[in-house]
Amino acid sequence: MMPSNKVEVALVSDKDIPTCFQVLSESFGHDAPFVDIYFPGHDTPSGQAQGTKRLTAWKQSSEDSTFLKAVARAGEGHQEHIVGLAVWTYMKEPPPAELEKVEDVEEVWPDEEDREFMTRLWRDYVIPRTRVINESSNKGVYVLELLAVHPDYRHLGAGTALVKWGTKAADEQGLKAVVEGTPVGRRLYEQCGLHTEIEEMRFDVGDQFSARRKPKLVFMVRDPVSST
């Protein structure tokens, strides 16, 4: 690990996206089933090209999503290294339950069984955040949709800084913050004020996919904290 005494949070530019996607891939490896199926082949050249394309399109098309990078500076020239990625979305309307409304499903999942599996996962994945949005009295919520920190740069505070950027934004607007987190990230989220609402999210994918790895995700929520 390169030495660094400070991690900074900044906005992601389009040219940062390939590096950010690589950080995402290396952060999760193959330990997160949802990432593996949502970003097929994310550790292969073709998968990284497709993932970069999808993240870029998302960044350019969503005014309510903020793409953040955590940057560490190292060496005599204080060279910048992107060590973390987060995407926070101010979500005023529930996400579509139909995956084809948010993704080009035939391009991303050309295999019919993979496509059907991901479609069923997505249908259940959005249920908890949909409920919280519907209960927000039309105010909406802040959703941490992605958080990744490169394994070589953990314990520098990158994850904390990226999470707290969004919780601060949520506080300023009096909104709840939510995340569908992995068990590995749970402690970090708790330290940033989120608490567990669903210990393990349920995915009813049917007998057809009983042999496939299903995501293990905890649904966590943080109520806004007033500055007064």
Q: Would you spell out the secondary-structure blueprint of this structure?
A:
Elements: E1 7-11, H1 17-28, H2 33-38, H3 45-61, E2 65-74, E3 79-91, H4 105-108, H5 112-125, H6 127-134, E4 141-149, H7 158-172, E5 177-181, H8 186-191, E6 195-198, E7 218-222
Parallel strand pairs: 4-5
Antiparallel strand pairs: 1-2, 2-3, 3-4, 5-7, 6-7
General shape: globular
* Helical run tally: 8
Average pLDDT: 94
What strand line-up does the widest sheet have?
1-2-3-4-5-7-6
How is the biggest beta sheet arranged? 7 strands, mixed
Element string (H = helix, E = strand): EHHHEEHHHEHEHEE
Q: Which architecture does the CATH hierarchy give at level 2?
A: 3-Layer(aba) Sandwich
Kindly provide the radius of gyration, computed on alpha-carbon positions and rounded to a whole number of angstroms: 17 Å
Beta-strand content estimate: 15-25%
Spans with pLDDT under 50 lasting ≥5 residues?
Answer: none
Q: What number of domains?
A: 1
CATH topology: Aminopeptidase
Question: What structural category do the secondary elements indicate?
Answer: alpha+beta
User: In whole angstroms, how far apart are the ends?
Assistant: 41 Å
User: Count the strands?
Assistant: 7
